[in-house]
Amino acid sequence: MSDELSVLEDNVRTSFKRVEWSHKIQEKQAEIYVSKYKTLETIRIITTSLTSCGVVSLIFVTDLWIKLISALISLTSVVISAVFESFSIKELGVKHKQAAISLLVVRDKYQHLLMEIQSGKKSYTELNDEYNELEKEKHQIYADSPQTTDKAVKKAREEFIMREDNSCSNEEVNRSIPDALSRGEE
Fold this sequence. Notes:
The chain has 186 residues and is an all-alpha fold.
């Protein structure tokens, strides 16, 4: 393999791993929002039910403590509803999932490009042009993707057990791609 093809392959492998990393972060962020949504929705259902019970009990009981508890539960229900309206938690989860899927598609394209590099059937210029197009597609997805949190990064890191955010050793890439596309350690 020529030096320029070797350099191109190194860059494709690094891009592959970084996209895989970004995909996992977006996926974990989506999971965080879905979990948060489910929790808040459950609390909202419970507090709405309890508020209804409190209102009905006020018909039969005039104790101040029941009125206070009912008001507090009702306030909790209103706050959760406001959070849903203000932050669109469910929608954020969907957007992160869409970004993760888009990154997964690009990751597969990088993997295909690695296969093409190793097959030797295309010229360096053709392969480099494909790489540049993939880079544009990747950067557009990054630009369109919603912001992630440190918690999502931590969860992704725990799943990948990576040493550094930008670490892309051959071993790490090799764990993610088919054996036929893997490289020995240098």
